Every structure is written in C-alpha cells, then in structure tokens.
Amino acid sequence: MSTIPPDTDEGDEARLLAEIDQLLDSPVHHANPLRAPLARLLALHRQQNERLLRLIHLSDGYHELGRLRSSTLSQRFEHHLRRLEKLARISDRYQDQLRSLNAALLQSSLKDPLTELGNRRYLMERLHDEDAASTTAPAAYCLAILDVDHFKRINDGWGHDMGDATLKHIADALRGAIRHSDFVGRWGGEEFLLIFPATELADAFQITERVRQAIGAISIAHRLGPVTVSASIGLTRQIAGERFAAALDRADSALLRAKRDGRDRTVIG
Predict the structure, then answer these.
(1) How far, in Å, are 140, 187, 189, 249 from residue 152 at the CA level?
(2) First vs last Cα of the chain: how many Å apart?
(3) How far apart are CA 19 and CA 16, in angstroms?
(4) Where is the GGDEF domain (predicted)?
C-alpha cells in the first residue's frame, strides 16, 4: 500500500488519491485481491480526513468564538469600568455636595437669621467649651447678658420692621466692639449673650462698656424722627469649678439690677 510522505503537500495528496481512484475503477484490477482492502482503506482515509477537517473547522470556530467572547468581555469590562469611573466621579461630587450642604446646614443651625450672629444653640456650645477649657485656662471666663432697653416701645411706636432694623444695628455694634477672641450671639428676643474666654473681670467690664456706648451711638433715620436705643448689661465671672448655669444666673440677676437702677448701664454680679 502507498503512503504519503510527511512533506507531501495537499496537491500531491489529491493527485495520489485520484490515481488510486483510477486504479480501483480500472477493470484490469477488479480481480486483484488487494482491490477491496484498498477501497476500504481509501474510504476510511476520506472519512478520517473529513473528520479531521470538521475538527479543524470546529477548533477554528471555537478559537474565533473565544476570541470574540474575549473581545466582548474585554469591551464589556472596559464599558463597565468607564461606568464605574463615571459613577465614582458622580459619587465624589455628590459626597462633596452633601458635605457642603451639611456644613451649610450646620452653619445655618448655629446662626440667627435676622442678626447673622450666633444663635442660642451656638452660644450653648461655646459655654460648654468654656466650661471644659476653664480647667486648664490661665484665667476663668466672663460672660454678660445684654438686654435692649424699652425695645417694646420701638416695635409699638415704629413697627416691627424698625424693631428688626434696630436689632441688626445692635448686632453690628456688638461685632465692632468685642475682641476677635470673644463670642457674641442672640440669646433670645432682644437679649444678647457675650462670652469672654480667659478674661479678668476688669477687662470684661471695659469691653461691655465699649459695647454699651456703641449701642448708645445708634441713630436710625425715620420719618417720625430718629430712633435711638440703649442697653442694660449684667456681667459676671465664672467661679472656679462651677458650671456655666450658675454664672448665667448671676449675670441675669445683675441685669435685673441694671434695669432697676435706671437702665443703660453695666452691673457686675
């Protein structure tokens, strides 16, 4: 039986198969005992060749499918990666906006909307801070409660708009008269609270007098005549070891004495 050399190309193989077909078809070889085995061998060769071709096509198909799937997975990965990056950027912006909003809300929650000074919550936080710091501070803190004299007359005589304008002018006077280290806020209504960290009573008294004089200099033009205002102040100094509530009580009592004594003055309690 003939064999195909390893280096035989497809053309040689085709010619050899054609030659075998001619031999098998020739009447001269019909009686040859090798004809039948050769015919079966040729048929088996062609079957194996067809199977091999199918396997090659199948292998090529799987390879191409794998390549396409790999490409598709890669593209999908890149697509999802870009989406995740976009979501991350959106998330970062969202987090920044949330932080900004939270800071704005916190700031708003600590500010009086009319005067733009700190509100009662802000002042309470500062008082707690001063209580905590007073254990190590070189000097105790002082605080003062300020009340606008005859404020109801302003609201009744000139209207609530003028009352609001007066409170704004007082807030400006307070900001201009205190030190950078001091705290001031609207305690409620026409009352304001001043906190002087690590301050001697004599120094705090000078500041409150400066505040009182600045408020006394306010004059707001109105068609019914200029609106002027004064303030009464109760001042005290924290006693070592006490909480701010006790100091507030003393300052409030001093404020009542300032009112009884004729207003427009600072009384130490």
Answers:
(1) 35, 17, 10, 24
(2) 129
(3) 5
(4) 139-269
What's the CATH code of the domain at 127?
A: 3.30.70.270
217 within a domain of the structure (yes/no): yes
Contacts with 208 (C-beta within 8 Å, 6 or more apart), sequence order? 144, 146, 194, 233, 235, 266
- pTM score, two decimals? 0.64
In terms of phi and psi (left: phi > 0; alpha: psi -120 to 50; beta: otherwise), the region of 111 is beta
Distance, in Å, from the CA atom of 28 to the CA atom of 69, rounded to the nearest integer, reads 57
Distance CA 183, CA 193 (A): 8
Q: Print the domain residue range for 75.
A: 12-26+33-108
Task: Report the percent of the chain where pLDDT is more than 90.
Answer: 52
pLDDT on residue 4: 40
- Which residues are tagged catalytic? 190
Q: Are residues 88 and 125 in the same domain?
A: no
